Amino acid sequence: MKLHNCPRFYLKSSFAFLLLFSISISSFSQASTITVWKDGVIGAIWNDSTKTVAYGKKDANGYYKIYLSDSLGGGETPLTYSGWDPNRHQWAEEWYPSGDYLFCYVEKTAYVPETGHTRVPDDAIPGYGAYTDIWLVKRDGSQAWQLTNFANNYDNGVIHGAISRDGLKFAWSQRVLAPQLFDLNLAAGSYEMKVADFSLTPTPTLSSIQSFKPGGLEAANELESISNDHTYLTFYSSFESKNLFATPAYSLNMITGAISQLTTESFTQCPTFNPNNTKLVYMTGQDCNIFPGEIQGADWWMMNPNGSNKLRISRMNVTNDPQSVNHYRLAGSLSFTSDSTFFGGVMTNPLGLTGYTAKVRILSTIGADQDPEFYVFPNPSTDLISVQLFNIKEEEEIQVFNSQGKKMLSKMVSEVSFMDVSTYPNGIYIISLKRKPKICIKFVKQ
Fold first, then answer.
1. 389 and 355 both lie in a single domain
2. Which comes out higher in pLDDT, residue 25 or 325?
């Protein structure tokens, strides 16, 4: 979708009948649709090769276990391995691209006595990080391989990982220091980021491990996503803010070690590349209402990989919004099924892993090749398009022209507006702002 200087014939005045069609349904004022995909499950990850979702939920004894289902949540089956202790946590982290194997985190079996700490099952809850190792398991549970063997103590474990799209790189955040309860920087512990080459043959192995510790400081560092070219790693960190509740998102050039800050918003986490690497979706507490008696939640936002053109795509923490239930909601990690759709975890309680998995469809998007004042999505389109305006203080008039210069529509819009183009003949159309007619966006109706 490129910007063009509009030829004059697109801008000729026309006495043709204006097609005026506005959609005023409240849900269409959103930049996304959100539906509950499966209640009580967290950490859903999608594999496109097998059209399978892996996720975690508690068993009858309170331990998290791995389950598989189809894209609609049906055909649920447990995934386990006979060598794993059933009374330990097991967690699905990333699919190998073929879908034949799953990277997972498994709690260590042995409870080793420690000085100054009494080990309890909660220490190894997924996301808490202690006493866990990285494993690879076949999707039928017939075979599994332990890929790491971290020290069996409260200082060590793993919390999050990412895989490259070709399956040749696996990365994770490795705990190296237990939580320091009275230190906002280290309230969840200190973590180093690790990136390794991965090979399936002759035996699944992680090798050539690189370590990254931003600023050389003890801090919370949780990585989230690897770029398609194996150059960039996205993560959040407290190494500059020194505050776990005010963490910016960053990108790390794994070749040069250079770090770029992507956000300044409050409490930002989970910056995740979409499949074609043109966008990052992340969660933040920016502009989230705090409901009476509750703490700050977080919504999903989207930006370009360089941190530009930020767009809010969910409004779960906006009072009386159609996407809100007027209670705390924390948007969490996500897994894309396409460039415009993802599974995302939603926490309903600030403690533990209580919540559900949502299916989110993005109705608006951004692009580096578009005018910073507005953009159009999807493009091409068959029925509905959204027009997003940036940096406006009042309504703008937009105009739509066909390839013969005929004005198809003129409409006053504010921020996000939706238009039905289903009745338009297939072809190329131009959208422009009336006050800036030389800057316009071409979109295709098909």
1. no
2. 325
